[in-house]
Automatic annotation (TrEMBL):
Domain Quercetin 2,3-dioxygenase C-terminal cupin: 165-227
Signal peptide start-end: none
Alphabetical list of InterPro entries matching this protein: Quercetinase_C (IPR041602), RmlC-like_jellyroll (IPR014710), RmlC_Cupin_sf (IPR011051)
Organism of origin: Hymenobacter mucosus
Name listed for the protein in its UniProt record: Quercetin 2,3-dioxygenase C-terminal cupin domain-containing protein
């Protein structure tokens, strides 16, 4: 991989970190109590957070504009409640996408009293929503082996067609994958959950992120075993 397309690396040691007795949160972009003018939202992609909730704890988040919130558990399970009493429990090998209007409140709770749970919550601008809605997408870890598996497809799952898709992959060292965006003006964003990758000529370690624009395809190569990555294609 020798070519380089327009993009930006978000190094792990430059993310925003918030730690309280209830939770610890790592934010790639400015979010909630973490504000950095050098880390603004990228198009529709408003926030990308990796969070750990302590046993029996919860966190409450205001929804400041119409948004899709993607919840992806990494360990354990999360109870996910929004304004109006809509609640669900989402667990490992599931991804929940919830469409929430501005002014709503989102509460995330750890149902385990003793053990922490970790998860991603990703926020994307929705534009305009008539009402709240949700959808759950299931996958199996065997589907992720040495490939980028599309878990959340664009255009399905809620009354408003989703303007993004989400893929996951787990790779052995030196295995490669190519992602071809469905739309030429999409943002391609990837976040390394574990291991190391070379993505479009950039070296990424665990917790690093990369945004790439104006690309017909994005090439990934795992540089370690059990390397795990999540990718988003976000329409303009």
């Amino acid at each position: 991989m020798i070519k380089q397309t327009p993009g930006r690396i978000y190094l792990a040691d430059q993310h925003g970190f918030i730690t309280t007795p209830q939770y610890s949160r790592c934010s790639v972009f400015s979010f909630a109590d973490y504000a950095d003018e050098q880390r603004p939202a990228t198009g529709r992609l408003l926030a990308f957070n990796e969070e750990t909730l302590a046993g029996g704890q919860r966190s409450s988040l205001p929804v400041w504009e119409d948004a899709y919130v993607v919840l992806l558990p990494l360990t354990g399970e999360i109870k996910y409640t929004s304004s109006g009493g809509q609640a669900a429990v989402v667990q490992v090998e599931e991804v929940e996408v919830r469409a929430l209007p501005a002014g709503a409140t989102l509460e995330l709770a750890n149902l385990f009293e003793e053990e922490p749970v970790s998860f991603l919550h990703i926020w994307l601008r929705a534009g305009s929503l008539a009402k709240a809605s949700s959808a759950v997408f299931s996958y199996g870890f065997e589907q992720l082996e040495n490939t980028l598996a599309e878990v959340v497809p664009a255009g399905t799952g809620t009354p408003v067609a989703l303007p993004f898709s989400l893929s996951l992959g787990r790779f052995a060292g030196r295995h490669e994958a190519t992602y071809r965006p469905a739309y030429p003006d999409s943002l391609f964003f990837c976040y390394v959950l574990a291991g190391a990758f070379e993505v479009e000529g950039r070296l990424l370690h665990a917790k690093d992120g990369l945004a790439v624009w104006e690309t017909e395809e994005a090439e990934l190569e795992a540089l370690s075993n059990n390397a795990l990555v999540v990718t988003l294609e976000v329409q303009a």
